[in-house]
Each structure stands twice: as structure tokens, then as C-alpha cells.
Amino acid sequence: MDLFYKNRMLHLALLALCVSFTGCGGGLNDQPDLGLVTGTITFEGSPLSGASVTFMPDSGRPATATTDAAGNYELVYIRDTKGCKIGHNKVVITSVVEGVNEMEAEGDDGAPAESTKEKLPAKYNTDTELEADVKAGENTINFDLKKS
Question: Within 13 Å of residue 116, how many CA atoms lie on the same side as its CB?
Fold first, then answer.
């Protein structure tokens, strides 16, 4: 299975996971205790812009963020509620680069098809080794990612 399909499957699985936890309502009383989580992500010493960051607790809803131009992120639990479930979390970071795949053509017009490629090693996403312990209150959790 090529990398494009692996990444697409990962994104679909994360989306399905997020949708399955949205439920049909419920008040704020059913929300778990959250810790506010911010941080900076660098790759080979440079800020990682536009990366998708997901903290997945051992049970419950994941929290997500997208890094800004300086590599900074702030997790969102749901809608306008910032934070992440307190406790152990696996962390998934993806940074997809879009390009043009000149080997494939769309339709009969011969126009090049767009392709995507994960620029980070699998140990940060599909086979993540990243973990974080979120505590009550404010948490600053930085990640300095390397190619190898």
C-alpha cells in the first residue's frame, strides 16, 4: 500500500473516531476534566507550519490543533472548548505536502493529478512513538522532530 493511501486511511480513521465521539448532545456536565495544552513543533530545528496535531487519550475524545507559521499550536477539545483530556495521550503529528503527480492523469484531458506526501517519518504519525501526559491547568508540550 503506498504512502498516499496509508495517509488517507489514517485521516479517515481519525475523522471517523472524532465523529463517533460527537454524540447527540449532552451538556457541559458530561465533559471530562481538561488541561490547556500549547506548544511549539519544530522539524530539524525549523518551525513546522501547517502541521496537524492530535492528542489521543487512552479513552475518550481526541483533541486537535494546527500549527501556525511559527510552529505554535493550541489544542481544541470540541468546538470552542480549548484543552485536552487529562492523563496519558498518544500524539500524532502529520504534515502533508501537496504536489503534482505527473505520472497520473485525471480524465481524458491529460491534466496532471494532485498527490500528497507525508514529510514526517512514520514514527510521528502512522506508527507514532510520541506520548504526552496532560495535567490539570496549563501545559506547554514542545516537540523537536528529527528525520531519523
Answer: 12
**48 in a domain, yes or no?**
yes
Determine, yes or no, domain membership for 90: yes
pLDDT tens per residue, the chain (148 residues)? 565 656 665 665 565 555 555 555 545 567 899 999 999 999 999 999 999 999 999 999 999 999 999 999 999 999 999 999 999 999 999 998 766 454 454 555 555 555 678 999 999 999 999 999 999 999 999 999 999 8
Burial of 73 (0-12, 13-18, 19+ CB in 10 A): buried
Length of the chain: 148
How many domains does the chain fold into? 1
User: pTM for the whole thing?
Assistant: 0.72
> In Å, how far are 7, 68, 141 from 14, measured between CA atoms?
11, 21, 21
> In this structure, what CATH number is given to the domain that contains residue 137?
2.60.40.10
The span from the CA of 71 to the CA of 11, in Å, is: 21
